[in-house]
Design a protein that fits this description.
CATH superfamily of the largest domain in chain A: L-amino peptidase D-ALA esterase/amidase
Helix content of chain A: 25-40%
Shape of chain A: globular
Largest interface: A-B, 65 and 65 residues
CATH class of the largest domain in chain A: Alpha Beta
Strand order of the largest sheet of chain A: 13-12-11-14-10-15
Radius of gyration of chain A: 21 Å
Number of helices of chain A: 10
Oligomer: homodimer
Structural class of chain A: alpha+beta
Order of helices and strands of chain A: EEEHEHEHHEEEHEHEHHHEEEEEH
CATH topology of the largest domain in chain A: L-amino peptidase D-ALA esterase/amidase
Largest sheet of chain A: 6 strands, mixed
Number of domains of chain A: 2
Chain lengths: 383, 383
């Protein structure tokens, strides 16, 4: 059901010809209101793509009527012409939909450093607008795929209101945010300040804790739009929890579809002195190429976990550290623990627990293994 | 000539049986004086192997008479027993050589988290001592190899004095220091404070700027020993330059032998506002898995360079950034530059220049590409 699960939204996904292989590459999401409140979180990368720079301007009003998304080109590092193209995209959508261009957010994904074929994009917007439908969410989700092998959607319903979403992302996933485009819609009647609060609370513990390959994109965008069409204003906690659930679900789907991965790895840091320490240690473990290779080889190489912990500034004593892999405490008190041959690593999901023995805080980072397929996928052609 | 190029040193390298395949695995380096001054730099990893903890104690006196090095086991994360084993190693070498154990530095390399077979190590020290020779430097260099495909040595001579060295390292190479063991010897008559100053100045711009895979070891050790046997005390600048040359030479050899690598990549950051900015940006580029895959595929994907720069806190304006790959400015003013088809990437060495257009400082970081062979080498067996 994707972004059209919530009432008040229509969507479409079409093949505009941006991708040379003819696959779907342009999506349109429209908020029919009555409310048009919105919140957004963008990449922390200081090199921001033109659509990010534009959408940041759009967000200043807290109002979004429509979102144009394209795959097949990131429109990043494309200079003034790239920004003009994004602006023209918003103008075209505004014109076709009868809205102001400044209410149209734009998201792009694909190769960095090439201009979009605007002779395909602008007619594509007209085509997509003609196909807008209350059942178009799936097609929109399909049209934003790049190296994704599956499209990603999530829906959570409350008492009479719904939060629905679509996401794309399969590589270049790293904190602040993970590399991806996400559009979340809701018919809950919620103002932009509340949307912003709920969205930031959710992304901080979900997308910001997905780290596929340590690489941060220039195009990351997460949008949360409210139509208010249910007429119901939920309790904040219930609404925020629904947004967090949708984000967590999509974050897990992103890791599950990470480029070349054969293992999904849950890195849980426990007994940290602070949440910041737990996140820092979790990220250090999740980014350790040697560990990621070892997990690929189904090798419970806890020495590489300790090496990674040792590079952080977190509070811990080396001789109190513990590491469990799939439930077996292979490292205790910073040294050899239970027999590593007891660790069963046959399944796709691997669970690493790092015990810092320094407090009571915890954090979980999701990552995946490093494989020859990842290398192939990112070296055989420009992406 | 290795560590015996300088007068006043003897060395040996033997197969003690620590490695199950019977390859050389134990080296001994002895300083016969008259001086026994020494300096050392150790890993910045907070999880330090037993031999590092021991050698840090040894260095408090600034005197080192001998170094015992073994491959086949890192003796890291091995608890109190591991430290006792290192201590017993130093005691045994001291006894055999007629020196105090506290003057014997110990270095170990290999798998983390397993105890050394002391029934092989201790007799091995006796065997090695019996084979000590002024021509034993090559054998010592061979005995410290782990996944190295070649042994690494370097020699620079001044006016009547010499600096010679051996190194091991092929993976887990990351700043602070690169993962490796290095023993540098000199017959220049230099005190421990001067050795320390020259060594730190050298490692800061050489080993600390080698970043193979972003992973920092628990065992890194660089030792610089002076016998004073030439009777000559060189000018500081000439001596420091010789030490720097040897470290730069070995650092380049480490990258040239990095696990699975097919490309050696020189990342040169220019026109930075500060040297710290240049180093931060260089490391960010050198650690970007997507870029390292692209270089493997001979793809001059400058967008990935800009993405990496964008994650740093360095001073720059996105629309003034420039990137040259093998002499072709593929990115100018943060956007498309010269034709990327002009870039010739057939050769092993690849030169990336990142121009921050923010000042006059520069720094160079060496790294290598990310390959399926790297994944295989680090997943097919525990290492």
């Amino acid at each position: 059901m994707s972004v059209t699960a919530a009432k008040g939204f229509r969507a479409a996904g079409i093949a505009a010809g941006i991708k040379q292989n003819g696959a779907p590459d342009l999506a349109l999401v429209v908020n029919d209101g009555p409310r048009r409140a919105a919140a957004a979180v963008f990449t922390a990368n200081r090199v921001k793509a033109a659509p990010v720079l534009w959408s940041e301007q759009v967000m200043k009003s807290g109002q979004v009527s429509a979102v144009v998304l394209n795959s097949g080109g990131a429109n990043a590092c494309t200079g003034p012409k790239g920004f003009q193209d994004t602006h023209a995209t918003a103008e075209k959508a505004g014109e076709v939909l009868g809205r102001g261009a400044i209410e149209v957010a734009v998201c792009s994904t694909g190769l960095i450093g090439t201009l979009l074929p605007m002779d395909k994009v602008l007619p594509g917007i007209e085509t997509a607008a003609a196909q807008l439908s209350e059942h178009g969410g799936e097609k929109a989700a399909i049209a934003i795929k790049t190296t994704d092998t599956v499209h990603k959607t999530s829906v959570v319903s409350g008492g009479g209101w719904t939060v629905g979403a679509m996401a794309k992302g399969a590589g270049m996933l790293a904190p602040g945010l993970a590399t991806m485009l996400v559009v979340i819609t809701t018919d809950a009647d919620v103002d932009d300040a509340t949307l912003d609060k709920a969205l930031r609370a959710a992304t901080r513990v979900t997308f910001d804790r997905v780290d596929s390959d340590g690489c941060m994109s220039t195009n990351d965008t997460v949008l949360l739009l409210s139509s208010g069409a249910s007429g119901i204003t939920p309790e904040y906690d219930a609404f925020a929890d629904a947004v967090r659930q949708v984000c967590a679900d999509l974050g897990r789907q992103l890791i599950g579809d990470a480029e070349g991965a054969s293992k999904d790895i849950k890195v849980e840091v426990v007994n940290a002195a602070s949440e910041e320490d737990a996140v820092e240690v979790g990220r250090s473990i999740a980014r350790n190429n040697l560990l990621k290779c070892a997990i690929h080889g189904e090798d419970p190489n806890w020495g590489r976990v300790l090496s990674a912990i040792g590079t952080t500034g977190a509070v811990f004593e080396p001789d109190r550290l513990g590491v469990a892999i799939n439930g077996v405490w292979v490292c205790k008190n910073g040294s050899v623990g239970e027999d590593r041959d007891l660790v069963d690593m046959r399944y796709r999901e691997v669970h690493i627990v790092a015990d810092l023995a320094a407090g009571a805080e915890t954090a979980t980072i999701w990552t995946n293994d490093l494989t020859a397929d990842y290398v192939h996928e990112n070296s055989a052609y420009s992406s």
